[in-house]
Amino acid sequence: MSELRADGFPESAVRARARSGTAGALPDLAQYGHALFGADPAQPAASRADPLDGLRLVPPVFVPGRLDKLLDLAREPVYRDVDLATVVGGFRSTLPLYLSAFGSTRAATVDLGLAASRQAGRLGIPMVVGENVMPVNGYGRIGGDAQRSLLGRITAYAAHARDEGGGVVVQQSTEDADAEVWNLVYSDPNVGSLLESGRLAFELKVGQGAKPGLGGMTVLDAATAARLADAYTMDPVFGRESGTVLRCSSPGTFTEEILRQQIRLMRNNFPRARVWVKLPPARDVGAAALVAWQAGADAVTVDGAEGGTGWAPVAFLDHVGLPLGECLRRIGEHPSCLLVSGRMWEGARVAKCLALGADAAGLGRAALIAVDTDAENGLVNLVECLALELQMLISALGKYHVDALAAEDVWSPDAAFPGSSLPPAGQRDRSDDLQPSR
Amino acid sequence: MTQINLTRPVGCPVGAGRPLPSGPREHLSSPVTRSVLTIQHRMLIAARDFLSGQGFTEFLPPIVGPVTDPGARGAKQVDVDYYGHRYKLMTSAILYKQATLTAFDKIFCIAPNVRLEPLETASTSRHLAEFHQIDVEMAGASRDEILRVAEGLVKHVVQQVTARLPGELDSLGRDTSVFADLLAEPFERRTHADAVADLHGMGHGQSPDAEIDWAGEAMLSRKASKPFFVIDYPKGCRGFYDRESHERPGFLRNFDLIAPEGYGELCSGSEREHDYATIVARMRETGENPAKYGWYLQMVREGIPGSAGFGLGLERFTRYVAGLESVWQASAYPKVPGVASP
Q1: Residues of A with CB below 8 A from B77's CB?
Q2: How far apart are the first and last CA of chain B?
């Protein structure tokens, strides 16, 4: 375990799960018979800013879905009968989860990135590789440090992946276009098996949750900064004597037409790869998501303002961007796959997002902390615990497939979440999501 | 020392096209290669005669530069360390063709290009990672005018080869009667939308927003008896320099020339964008970072002529004229995508 910290994030709870796995879904066993448990009244007040925390999942008495499952099984169903396998951005996934991008930021060390890649492969969930990994750490084919590179992350995942399911998603943002990350990956023999098994996607990064309206940022030492000065803005905000500079990507200029045509060009140029689009929690997130889907994106990823990051200005962390819950409300009914991220680490928050229309949730900080806790099994343990919670929650709602979660399953104390206006997720035919859209 | 062999890349489906030779000696000393290169030599003479006769000036294009054509679908550019600057080998001469129109109104070049194509193209029989284009650009020209130049060029070259080298064609088993329609009749023009509808009619799931895929193109090509133009491609499938139609927004004033008998695309061209603001917006639509196009945007900002032009793939054209199974047969030192070869 390193000195990695995540202030404002339930770090100790994540570390506990990374150690104990499914046992983390229940109170400490040592307290059994000695303590009484109930809701913590301090909890909702502390997190009022996050609309998702204000929601409650509400099981019904009458459960026709359970009757269907009873008939199917010829016995009373239990929570372990809940099927969590689904389709995530065109990939079959064992769970409604994916590994979010962590880029080249120093907190996401090469070792943590590789450990997370291996465990995501084992779990059979898709993995996104951050936009600036290649421009900063290299690709890894000729010269350089192969392990540190983008190819290192991809091959770590592929080497541990199951025979089917999951997939690798490679991000690119505006400045990365100079390095032609996608073109390089698409023409690389090392990536051929992923491409041939339909498990490669490219993600157009339009923005991210922690700093919507800004591009990617990392802190670099002077020597690295000099090497990359052609491609990025280097801002000496820390003073010249610090020996470090702020490396900034531009956010990139987008209009409806620019976004639409970029997606079409991705589909045209990389017909065998899936297309994902990552949006920031912007005020027009609903309109932007619709443009992306209509242009043929296989998935739109929305990173809420509570999303994690390696580096961002304090003003942005505290004051900029919509919370994920509000993004979900603004997107509302939608035609295709919606993926969400932002403070995901346990089952209830994921279940609420799925009920409000998302198809899967991304693990970012939680995954990093988990592999930092246990490089071999931390992420697997955390995810197994999350999966158990999801099965318990979904079965309590009288449902036995993760895709059946719907707006009826959540209750909001305020009228901002008119459940009836949200699409019943179970009514969407997700088998369509696996059909090539071209 | 590692022996470099002409072997197929990992993951490449075997069976499409002629097997590669074991090395350069076998390839270069083959009578087939000699006949093919003889035909190609005559094609170059004929192309230069035709274009020079029409008032075009030949120029020698650069091989490396800070930026090159981003419009090659899915292919990777080759980076070159140029005194510490990241330069590119040319994927096409398009940016330099537009710039060179500030010297002459009608230009052409025989341009070498390098594109690290996706591995799936190794099995199309018509992709090379290193190839040449007969590149033509004409200031002030409309698409109609440049289509006439392209059609005239193809007809003249085929006429010259069939008239002067019947023995070489015969030795390759190429029946010259297949060129009767090409030489006698005008080339048909059909829109991309019509081509998509044709393919849907044949049960092929072609996207209406995208480039016609390799399989679809081969299907259309096999149905034809002479080359034909496909015009008006949708915007999302070409580079920023192909001009968008004012009358039909979302569609380009561009074209491909498709050879018959399954040989497929020979040539791409277009009327060009030359307005600064339009080019910058189109760069963003094609995912490009305008910052790296410094010298080009500076020229565009100061004014370059409107134009139309095309690039005619020399090895593909040779393959069609000589009736070859694979395009690599039309290169002395073939570079098939993914194959490490001399």
Answers
A1: 180, 183
A2: 14
Give the Cα separation of A312 and B67 in Å (integer): 32
> Which residues of chain A make contact with B236, given a CB cutoff of 8 A?
260-261, 263-265, 267-268, 295
Q: Work out how many domains chain A is built from and give that number.
A: 2
Residues 6+ apart with CB under 8 A from A163: none
> Euclidean distance between the first and final Cα of chain A, in Å?
46
Is A406:A428 a contact under the CB 8 Å cutoff? no
pLDDT tens digit string along A142-183? Answer: 665 666 688 888 999 999 998 889 999 999 877 666 678 888
Shared domain for A180 and A225, answered yes or no, is no
Residue A278's closest CA among A338, A326, A218, A353?
A: A338
ipTM of the complex: 0.83
Cα–chain-centroid distance for residue A323?
15
Sort out which chain B residues have CB atoms less than 8 A from A293's CB and list them: none
Give the gap in angstroms from C-alpha B240 to the nearest C-alpha of chain A.
Answer: 11
What is the Cα–Cα distance from A52 to A310, expressed in whole angstroms? 23
pLDDT tens per residue, chain B (342 residues)?
333 333 433 333 333 578 899 899 999 999 999 999 999 999 999 999 999 999 999 999 999 999 999 876 788 999 999 998 889 999 999 999 999 999 999 999 999 999 999 888 888 888 999 999 999 999 999 999 999 999 999 999 999 999 999 999 999 999 999 999 999 999 999 999 999 999 999 999 998 988 998 889 999 999 999 999 999 999 988 889 999 999 999 999 999 999 999 999 999 999 999 999 999 999 999 888 898 899 999 999 999 999 999 999 999 999 999 999 999 999 999 999 989 999
pLDDT in tens, A315-364: 888 889 999 999 999 999 999 999 999 999 999 999 999 999 999 999 99
Residues A188 and A223 occupy one common structural domain: no
For residue A225, the enclosing domain spans 216-249
Full set of structural domains in chain B with CATH: 24-330 (3.30.930.10)
Cross-chain residue pair B338–A189, CB shorter than 8 Å: yes
DSSP, res B142 = -
Q: Which residues of A touch B288 (CB under 8 A)?
A: 177
Same domain, A176 and A222: no
A91 and A226 in a single domain? The answer is no
CA dihedral B237, B238, B243, B249 (to 10 degrees): 10
Q: Is A193 on the interface with B (CB under 8 A)?
A: yes
| A207 & A221 share domain | no
d(CA B256, CA B232): 9
For testing contact with chain A, the best of B204, B209, B268, B283 (most A CBs within 10 A): B209
| Same domain (yes/no): A283, A419 | yes
Residues A318, A237 share a domain: no
Could B119 and A183 be called an inter-chain contact, meaning their C-beta atoms sit closer than 8 Å? no
Q: Would the CB atoms of A265 and B117 count as touching at under 8 Å?
A: no
